[in-house]
Amino acid sequence: MEDYLTLFVDETSFYNRIVLGNLLPDHLWKPLPHIIVAWLRNYIGGLTLYFISGFLWSFYIYYWKRNVYLSQDFIPSYESILLQIMVTMKAMPWYSALPSVSEYMIESGWTRCYSSISEVGWPAYLAYLIVYLGIVEFGIYWMHRELHDIKALYKHLHATHHIYNKQNTLSPFAGLAFHPLDGILQGLPHVIALFVVPTHLMTLMILFFTEGIWTTNIHDCIHGNLWPVMGAGYHTIHHTTYRHNYGHYTIWMDWMFGTLIDPKEDSKKVS
Fold first, then answer.
1. Least confident of 43-47, 60-64, 94-98, 258-262
2. DSSP letter for each residue of 122-176
3. Cα separation of 241 and 86, whole Å?
4. pLDDT, tens digit (0-9, with 9 covering 90-100), for 143-164
5. Measured in whole angstroms, how far is the alpha carbon of residue 244 from the centre of its chain?
6. pTM over 0.85
7. Of the candidates 148, 218, 210, 144, which has an alpha carbon nearest to the alpha carbon of residue 183?
8. Type and span of the H or E element at 114
C-alpha cells in the first residue's frame, strides 16, 4: 500500500516542479513540508487562473465585443470589479487550502482515489466520473441552497457574494468573490465525493481548476443557451431573485427540486 501511495506523492511533486520550479528558486520551496508546497502551488495556480481568465474574458466582452453581448448599461464599473478582486484576494489563500488538504488525504490513503486510468479501464473511468459529477452537482446545489435558506449562514457568509445583485455589478471577477468559508463550503462536495466513488487524481486536479474558469463564465451575464448547462443567464437570475437556479454545472437539480427559472421566461414569472 505504501508503495502505491508514493505514486500520488510523485504525481503531486511533479505538479509542484512544473509550477514552483519555474517561478521560484529551489531553496525557497523545496525545504518546506509537502502539504505547504502543495498549498503554495495551488495558491499561485489559482491566482494565475483567476486573473488570466478574468482579464481575457472581460477584455473580450467589455472592449473587443463592446455592445455586442451586453449593452452599455450592463457593463460593471471599475469600482465594482476592483471590489470583487479585493474580496477574492482575501479569500484565495483559504480557497487554496481545500485542494491541498484533499491531496494530503489522497496521499495518506484515506480516499478512493486511484493513480492511473489503466487500473480501472476507460468504461469504468467514465462511469465513475459521471457518478462523481452527480454527487458534486447534488452536493453543491444543496450547500448553495442552505447558504440562502439558513439566515445566519446567509447573513454572515453568503451575503458577501450577493452584494453583486444586478447585471451592472456582475463581472467575470465576481466568480470567486466569496467569504472564504462560503467558498470552502461550496467546494466540500468535491472532497466528500472522494470517499464515495473511485476518482482519478489528475482528473480531480483538472476539475478543481475548471471550477475557477466556470465561475468566471457564469458571472458574465451572457446567456449561452446550451441545454442543460447552468450558464450565466440562469445564474444572473439567481443573483437577482436570490431563490432560484442554485445549480452548478447543469439545471437538473433545480428542475428536480422546483427552483428552476429559465432566462427566456417572462420576467413576471420570476417575481
1. 60-64
2. HHHHHHHHHHHHHHHHHHHHHHHHHHHHSHHHHHHTGGGGGG--STTT--GGGGG
3. 25
4. 999 999 999 999 999 999 999 8
5. 19
6. yes
7. 144
8. strand 113-114
Strand partners, 91: none
The number of angstroms, rounded, from the C-alpha of 259 to the middle of its chain's C-alpha atoms is 21
Cell of 16: 509542484
**Cell numbers representing residue 48 in the block:** 494565475
Angle of CA points 206, 209, 214, to nearest 5° = 110
Interior CA angle at 85 toward 181 and 166, to 5°? 85
Residue whose C-alpha cell reads 440562502 in the numeric block: 148
Other beta carbons within 10 Å of 152: 7
C-alpha distances (whole Å) from 165 to each of 68, 101, 103, 238 are: 22, 32, 35, 9
Q: Locate the domains of the chain by residue range.
A: 2-222
Q: Which residues fall within 8 angstroms of residue 158, CB to CB, at 6 or more apart?
A: 147, 148, 178, 179, 182
**Closest to 93 (Cα-Cα) out of 47, 53, 31, 54:** 47
